[in-house]
């Protein structure tokens, strides 16, 4: 990246005590002087050049590593805005349905705001790294016999109660916060990429990125608009198949959703950008997760690896520059990596010769 691109940043740096996305991008967000800013200094995640993916694809490839947000997923971007606006509206409780990452972010930002949080989860289907976050941040965790779509239906019904605010991506403030990742990419690269690839579950993220790119294009910060390409898991691909999936299944729990709340927004993003929604199998997702860790030193949860698997499926698309969003840190779901891979220590005698033998093998 050239200094010229880096110095084209259209927005000033925030003070050290206030570097969250609301502070950095306030003029592009629905924030007023009356809005109390609830922030954990989210955003400003690294955009990492990937030399090996670049070699494979024939384009410059960059990875937007959202796992380095405060609760280790991209959900924090939207949650800072959603919780701030909920507090402004006088909410005493926030509620969400979740496959894991939303619950962690909602619970953390509610704790920061000093309000209550309740999360409704599919029983037995949430990765341990996400569930423990919700517990420790003090959320009231409610497990139901049903999937995410059932949980979201219940949340919608509870959202009509005064003082309770829904913070799923059906809340437009979530999309507003999440679009800031597109702003950061344009600032880093000096323009939008030719192609942007994302995992798609509830479809809020692809909707938000497209909104962000369009706003920065309109503001004159980006000359081009990217093709938006989303990848769903093969067993949980309602947008790809153009029908609700009643019993979605995939090892990538974060995108195990059969009726996405932002289906319409995702479809519009793909259509307007001449992009596509495609699918990858669980085997392709796990292979991509392992490949990314081994070849680029980046550990992501399975859902995040859908974008990498997607690029492998595309092969060498016509593009000079490609950005992949990886949405959550691998430590969100360590159990899947341990149970699906052959990861075991090499047990040897406690002497130098035995260790040398292993090193030389």
Compact description:
42% of the residues lie in helices and 14% in strands.
What does this structure look like?
The protein is of the alpha/beta class and 361 residues long. It folds into two domains: 3-73 and 174-340, 3-Layer(aba) Sandwich (Rossmann fold), CATH 3.40.50.1100; 75-172, Rossmann fold. The protein contains 16 helices and ten strands. It has helices spanning 3-6, 21-25, 51-57, 75-88, 101-113, 128-136, 148-158, 172-178, 180-189, 204-218, 238-241, 263-272, 282-296, 302-314, 334-340, 352-360, and strands at 47-49, 60-65, 93-97, 116-122, 140-144, 164-166, 195-199, 227-233, 276-280, 321-326. The strands form two sheets. Strands 1-2-10-7-8-9 form a six-stranded mixed β-sheet, with helices on both faces. The protein has a four-stranded parallel β-sheet with strand order 5-4-3-6. Strand 7 (195-199), helix 10 and strand 8 (227-233) form a beta-alpha-beta unit. The longest helix is centred in the middle third of the chain and has 15 residues, at 204-218. It is globular, with a radius of gyration of 20 Å. 53% of the residues are buried.
Under CATH at level 1, the class of the largest domain stands as Alpha Beta
What's the overall average pLDDT, rounded? 93
Number of domains: 2
CATH topology of the largest domain: Rossmann fold
The name of the CATH architecture of the largest domain is: 3-Layer(aba) Sandwich
Largest sheet: 6 strands, mixed
Helix content: 40-55%
Tally of DSSP helical segments? 16
Strand content: 5-15%
SS-based structural class?
alpha/beta
How far from one another are the termini?
40 Å
Query: How are the strands of the largest sheet arranged?
Result: 1-2-10-7-8-9
Question: Quick one: overall form?
Answer: globular
Q: C-alpha Rg, in Å?
A: 20 Å
């Amino acid at each position: 990246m050239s200094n010229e691109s880096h110095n084209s940043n259209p927005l000033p740096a925030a003070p050290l005590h206030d570097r969250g996305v609301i502070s950095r991008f306030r003029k592009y967000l629905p924030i007023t002087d009356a809005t109390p800013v609830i922030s954990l200094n989210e955003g400003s995640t690294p955009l990492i050049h990937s030399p090996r993916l670049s070699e494979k694809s024939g384009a410059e490839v960059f990875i937007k590593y959202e796992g380095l947000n405060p609760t280790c997923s991209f959900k924090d971007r939207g949650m800072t805005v959603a919780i701030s606006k909920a507090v402004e509206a006088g909410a005493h409780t926030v509620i969400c349905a979740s496959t894991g990452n939303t619950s962690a972010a909602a619970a953390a930002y509610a704790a920061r705001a000093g309000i209550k949080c309740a999360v409704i989860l599919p029983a037995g289907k949430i990765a341990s790294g996400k569930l423990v976050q919700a517990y420790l941040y003090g959320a009231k965790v409610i497990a139901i016999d049903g999937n995410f779509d059932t949980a979201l239906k219940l949340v919608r019904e509870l959202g009509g109660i005064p003082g309770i605010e829904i913070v799923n991506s059906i809340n437009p403030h979530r999309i507003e916060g999440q679009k800031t990742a597109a702003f950061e990419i344009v600032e880093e690269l000096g323009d939008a990429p030719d192609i942007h690839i994302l995992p798609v579950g509830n479809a809020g993220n692809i909707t938000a990125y497209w909104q962000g790119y369009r706003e920065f294009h309109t503001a004159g910060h980006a000359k081009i608009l990217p093709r938006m390409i989303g990848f769903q898991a093969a067993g949980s691909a309602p947008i790809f198949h153009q029908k609700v999936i009643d019993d979605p299944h995939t090892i990538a729990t974060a995108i195990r959703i059969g009726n996405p709340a932002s289906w319409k927004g995702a479809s519009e993003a793909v259509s307007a950008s001449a992009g596509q929604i495609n699918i990858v199998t669980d085997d392709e997702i796990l292979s991509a997760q392992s490949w990314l860790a081994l070849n680029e030193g980046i550990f992501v949860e399975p859902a995040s690896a859908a974008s990498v698997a997607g690029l492998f499926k595309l092969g060498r698309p016509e593009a000079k520059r490609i950005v992949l969003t990886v949405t959550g840190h691998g430590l969100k779901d360590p159990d899947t990596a341990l149970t699906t891979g052959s990861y075991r220590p090499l047990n040897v005698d406690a002497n130098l010769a035995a260790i040398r033998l292993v090193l030389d093998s």
